[in-house]
Amino acid sequence: xxxxxxxxxxxxxxxxxxxxxxxxxxxxxxxxxxxxxxxxxxxxxxxxxxxxxxxxxxxxxxxxxxxxxxxxxxxxxxxxxxxxxxxxxxxxxxxxxxxxxxxxxxxxxxxxxxxxxxxxxxxxxxxxxxxxxxxxxxxxxxxxxxxxxxxxxxxxxxxxxxxxxxxxxxxxxxxxxxxxxxxxxxxxxxxxxxxxxxxxxxxxxxxxxxxxxxxxxxxxxxxxxxxxxxxxxxxxxxxxxxxxxxxxxxxxxxxxxxxxx
Amino acid sequence: xxxxxxxxxxxxxxxxxxxxxxxxxxxxxxxxxxxxxxxxxxxxxxxxxxxxxxxxxxxxxxxxxxxxxxxxxxxxxxxxxxxxxxxxxxxxxxxxxxxxxxxxxxxxxxxxxxxxxxxxxxxxxxxxxxxxxxxxxxxxxxxxxxxxxxxxxxxxxxxxxxxxxxxxxxxxxxxxxxxxxxxxxxxxxxxxxxxxxxxxxxxxxxxxxxxxxxxxxxxxxxxxxxxxxxxxxxxxxxxxxxxxxxxxxxxxxxxxxxxxxxxxxxxxxxxxxxxxxxxxxxxxxxxxxxxxxxxxxxxxxxxxxxxxxxxxxxxxxxxxxxxxxxxxxxxxxxxxxxxxxxxxxxxxxxxxxxxxxxxxxxxxxxxxxxxxxxxxxxxxxxxxxxxxxxxxxxxxxxxxxxxxxxxxxxxxxxxxxxxxxxxxxxxxxxxxxxxxxxxxxxxxxxxxxxxxxxxxxxxxxxxxxxxxxxxxxxxxxxxxxxxxxxxxxxxxxxxxxxxxxxxxxxxxxxxxxxxxxxxxxxxxxxxxxxxxxxxxxxxxxxxxxxxxxxxxxxxxxxxxxxxxxxxxxxxxxxxxxxxxxxxxxxxxxxxxxxxxxxxxxxxxxxxxxxxxxxxxxxxxxxxxxxxxxxxxxxxxxxxxxxxxxxxxxxxxxxx
Lengths: 261, 655
Hints:
The structure holds 2 protein chains of 2 kinds. By secondary structure, chain A is an alpha/beta fold. Chain A has helices spanning 48-55, 78-84, 101-107, 117-122, 126-144, 160-173, 190-206, 218-224, 242-247, 249-256, and strands spanning 8-19, 22-33, 37-41, 63-68, 71-73, 86-89, 178-182, 210-214, 227-232, 235-240. In chain A, helix 3 (101-107) runs parallel beside helix 6. Among the domains of chain B are: 14-280, ANL, N-terminal domain (Rossmann fold), CATH 3.40.50; 475-654, ANL, C-terminal domain (GMP Synthetase, Chain A, domain 3, 2-Layer Sandwich), CATH 3.30.300. In chain B, helix 2 (44-61) crosses helix 6 (160-173), helix 12 crosses helix 13 (330-351) and helix 12 (302-323) packs across helix 14 (368-376).
């Protein structure tokens, strides 16, 4: 494989968070290296989405440290995470349904817009130049994801699989260093899943983007990820390459259940 | 001679015509392509530079006079340039259908002894790599789009832009090489080789000379008064002869600009943006445009529906006459004028057909309803009768005398006759040179004195219009001796928007029976409005209500057939709705979507037997091929229906 797995980009250390009496995460530690694809798996309620929410600052963990690009923090702040180059997609699609595909992806450029509201309201002048630059970038993403035909379609009218692709497009528009994907393939048919896999691998390969993804489809996870982290009841029970994880007895137990006798 | 057309005696190849276009209209746009959401354009001078660089680069790689160069991909300016670049070197471009699966490609590459391939993208490269080991002739592959190709390090793979860079260096080192190469070719050289899709057997390589293409293209341009100001969108496969005449030959001859769509899915959008003046589409495109319009009208508010239907009534009554410059009462002219403001013009604008001066359709028969719909809107739609072996034009509807039921009168310089056995034959400057490596087929098709057998049964009427009935070899007889013209009946069925495809059987049988494919979009919409739940094509096709719907269509066809004395006996007795759509990937249709009878008859033998038994249903297990080449099995239990038939008064009296 041509891409070089680099230094540690993100390190989480002893992350714990509880909601009332429920311990969603209990001292979870792992790291993500540059240019790698890391999958987080685990049964329902294992704390996978909570982990992503901690990484991009949506949740503030009660214990632990998050080190991103060498800067340690007790917790992330959402706007800071975005500015630092973390983008994500959601388990339940969170797009603006009434807006076109183009406009939705354009919103992903929001952080990169430098001109103030007044200039933007005037439209002409520097804001127009800037708008054109962003539009060019958005068109590159549209081309990359092969969604030219739905450029002007309101996303609410699109089938589910395409909406997922638009959401990925919006995340890419921020030109992230770290991309968090929460179940990118949930509810997709076989063909749509294959397409999505190809896009994820291409993003990783062409742009060198580091990817952390949560996925239930084990064949997908085992095919595309470099390393896998397994959570169960808020605890990390295994980590390693797909083959190592597949052979791990704790993981097998967690997924298949063990008889208590 | 149309103004602006140069003297052709010395301009007998495309590279020479290109040079002429640079001389006459260097700064006029020659090609447009939508990329990253923006229409880019290249002038004739720029196009000539690109082609020159590519030709020199190909020479540097080792392309020789007479080599066959495959071209494969969607319509892209760069691929059109590749064809001219190959022709500059005296090599023969062989465009290949871009949606062919590997096995189909393998046959053509092997048969044509392709040495070089110029393809669009990673998808096409992958298909070639899969079969490359079985192709000893194939030496080099050039691709246009670099996306996804980063990890391909095979030495025989080259990016087109790199080849062009090499070409520029080669050009600088070898001054005069390019000019000499351009001057070397003449009109009688083979310009291109096209593989006909072939409803039977293996595809055949049709060799066409520069003269074939250029003279035919020019004659077509003269007949329709084409000028350098036409706009046209090249969206039909480059491997199809029509595209080579409309988007290449006629563009080079008259100097008009050819635009390429952004992707195959955006064609309808792109048509709207380009607003072509010269437009070609097979009947199914006109059909699907009309279906979309009708579906949207049914969802529109009542007042809009009334307006639409009222003015469409006016258009149906007088629109065709107004277009043909016939006498029409003032009141009707006024109504039509009003309708044009309120309905026709906006509708044409939505379809992107506002500017169309000449619209062609060919390939299959177009339904008279569809045809008159467009003509009554004021769109100059014409049918033509075309073939690869004729470099397209055989007959076309003349202006002012367009009749939906005919294929028009012979094109310029084309002679048409009907042989004693009813087969249509033609002779023209566009007649192909020969089939590649297939002298036997050439002899069977082309006579000593240049007449070509079309294989179609038809007749010329007293006004010189050609009527096509069916493929000669498909016309058969029922057991009682009644003539059976399958395509004739199938077309009648397909004219219903609910029916997408039909296959009829009856030769050497007791009665006519039919397979039907419903149109998912149209029937789906119909079902939705009735709140019927369905899960997909197979489910919808099996529902009783859908059978009732199709039953009515079949009964209507039978009523039509009953009025014709000769065809009265060929009414459809039994039919079934297929559980899957007929598909080119399963070998059931040709790449141009014509029904392949023999493979269908073989594959669905059980179903045919059931149609000719008393059974009212038949189980089926069918293999389907996915786009990536994997296969799967679909199980279904198909219902068989009896169709309502008309018994003639005469037959009843006899009983």
